[in-house]
Amino acid sequence: MTSTLEPLHASDPALLGGYRLLGRLGEGGQGTVYLAEGGSGARVAIKTLNQEAMSDPGMRRRFVREAGAARQVASFCTAAVLAADVDAHPPFIVSEYVAGPTLHQRIRSGGPMSGGDLSRLAVATVTALAAVHEAGIVHRDLKPGNVILGEGGARVIDFGIAQVSGGAGTVTTSVIGTPAFMAPEQIAEGRATALSDVFAWGALVAFAATGASPFDGPTVPNVLHRVINDEPDLSRVPHPLRSLVAAALAKDPADRPASKDVLVSLLGRGSVPDDGGDAPPPVAPGVPPTRVEPAVRPRAAERVPDDHRIPAAWRKVRADEPGRTVLGERYEPPAGCAAALVGLISVMLVISVIVAYASTT
């Protein structure tokens, strides 16, 4: 939710769900996001559906799903959903307002992150994913435009295409996402799991560290081909963060670590060289960090916008047809996020210690 605020249009309501609208934070094909103020003076963001989207059953279902999914997620480095009314006219979702640029805006204007800034971004975003996955949700569209850099740290937003996973933890649907941040199985099979989100996290951290996606290319089909077939360009991602990002970007989902394992590994060994900022807290004694040592082969990166949507007809990008065009500052954690992070890690560490103790007895 960028801090840029546009005036309300004449057609905009003055009140929505008991909140007074102050201005427009953004507008897309599905609707508008407003900055609003409650009776206590607290500011919130309100996302609405426009008339055209309301008449589309698919878009309306997606909006209802977003409201339901977001309310199931504990507020660990995410923008908390405060209220929702999917039967109102227009339907709306009220969420915590996080002032600040998106990660995409920050990198485009300020260049790559490094040191403590990069470390805190990596920890905050995977903390959010761990909370999302704990609720049985697959986000499916983690990307720089869906990470807000607030006054105290990064928050993951936008559950617009998130879905509750089935019994096997898999969501099968049409291909929706952002090319350079989609996992191979999302592109090729329309299949997404929590491990697909981990792949997106790896691509996002690489983008923050280098200023470009590790799978950038001149066209969307080229990007899709690289995601499925090429090893990522991680040559400018610092050690030891590089090996963990490489593991997250494994082509086979079975070779990727779970989001909670990524988080424990980050906190256990430190993700980037110290730049004088606060170091991540250590894990409890006797709990070994996750070991990930995949091979990485650098490739040249190119630029491509990150906001394309993938038509289903672009699913098939094959290794044997590489030329084919296929059709068809530093941030300290905010008090709420920091407390939530400590709570989440504490639970993980207690479980790990119990498991480690049980295995020795």
UniProtKB/TrEMBL annotation:
Compositionally biased tracts (Basic and acidic residues): 294-304
GO MF: ATP binding; protein serine/threonine kinase activity
Cited Pfam families: Pkinase (PF00069)
Chain segments annotated as transmembrane: 338-358
UniProt-listed InterPro entries: Kinase-like_dom_sf, Prot_kinase_dom, Ser/Thr_kinase_AS
Extent of Pro residues compositional bias: 279-288
SUPFAM superfamilies: Protein kinase-like (PK-like)
Protein kinase domain mapped to chain residues: 19-267
UniProt name for this protein: Serine/threonine protein kinase
Alphabetically ordered keywords of this record: ATP-binding, Kinase, Membrane, Nucleotide-binding, Serine/threonine-protein kinase, Transferase, Transmembrane, Transmembrane helix
Highest taxon, organism lineage: Bacteria
Amino-acid biosynthesis keyword on record: no
Region of interest (Disordered), ranges: 267-304
